[in-house]
Amino acid sequence: MQSRTTNSIRNSLIAFLAQILSILFSFITRTVFIKTLGASYLGVNGLFSNILSMLSFAELGIGTAIIYAMYKPLADGDEKKISALMNLYAKAYKCIGISTAVIGVCLVPFLDILIKDKPDIPNLTLIYLLFLGNSSISYFFSYKRSIIIASQRGYLNTLNQITFSIIQNICQILILIYFKQYLLYLIVQIICTICSNISISLKVNKIFPYLRKYSGEKLDKVSQRKIGKNILAMMSSKIGSIVVSGTDNLLISAFVGLHWVGLFSNYVLIETTIKSIIMQVTNAITASIGNLTATESDEKSYDIFKNLFFINFVITTFCAIFLIVLFNPLISLWIGEKYLLNEGIISLIVLNFFIIQMRQPSLVFINTYGLFWEIKWKSLLEAGINLILSLVFLTVFDLGISGVLLGTISSNLLTNVWWEPYVIFKYGFKKKPKKYYSLYVKYVIIALFPMGSTLYLANTVVYSGLIGILVKSLICLIVPSVILFLVFYRSREFKYFMIILKKVIYSTKRIKR
Q: In the predicted model, what is the mean pLDDT of the chain?
């Protein structure tokens, strides 16, 4: 039986390496997309992706609630309970796939309202329906990924996703170069989604043969009520979070213009790429933390939380520094200066990124402790604040993209930053959250020093192009490293970080061999 640390490191390493490959192919595909189809198609791609991400409210947190319910039976080896949960999951996801398709079709008459300055692009409705088809199909068989993740074998899911992602990107690049056909580009996406889901389904059937043995197993009434309560709590959280994360492109499209959605989406792609790397690492350790909270004391979980919070702070600080320094140089080198946004918008994008990423340890522990009911109203309040303030900044102050970002930042500060850790400490660790708040403020203040110093030095660099990016990247790496080392090298969390780093290096060498 491998340790939780070993599983976490293995899953994290494979997830990280796979994500790098995925990033490489995604950027090549995006570059070819822009060169062959242009900014209008890019705007449509971003807008419809956003609409379909909002339709994922149909899931209502069922997946998260059932994955949480799997941690204990997996730790206990309770095959019947696991099978019953998967059977419930399968039925729920088939219903979700159908409901997503139905709701999506009902939105077709309203597409004109969502697009300001409608571009001269043929088959817009068909394009939207292909997006909808891919989203709906993704629910069939994909539920089986949950048992892979919950059983601390997340690397298998990662390998599946990266394999079909690479195949998809290669096919899409060839289609764009030789045919310049957006419809074929979307059809390839649908085919790869189907193949990926079937492949992971076959893998799960092989690893967990007892799922077929107990294919008719039903969950007991007590467990059903408990999961139902968690799902009910997750409904508000899911709907609220989707309103917050899914309305940015909709608001920009409706109030600023579809062209700006295209420009903004390039920055979002880079930001999302960084987030996805961090998220892969976070997801890789979530199952191990779920196993920890199911089998160990709250005090042990609290120690792990403090260490994870520190590691997340260091990673987030480095990423924020790289983004604020290199955003425009990267966009300029990649696709040209006509796709650049001003520094004010960039600063808000990075600030929003920093706030969101600092929340990740709390979100991990909320999921692994199953504190869905205790946090049920948080996201609805967040969504209301976000939508109201974004509309005020857009309509009253005419701030454009900056107004949308300010709405998101404000809602985060007024709800998530204090509410999520409060719930974790009160119901999870059984401690007062005062220490967390003071530590959070301390980390934010400390982050300002390497960020300000790095930005100042990077702005003195006279080189442009690739040489300028390399020099600035070196500054982004060295300056924060020196400052954070001098501040934290004596702390217990830093020593834990170094132990984990050594294990990662050792594991990397073993993978290479």
A: 84
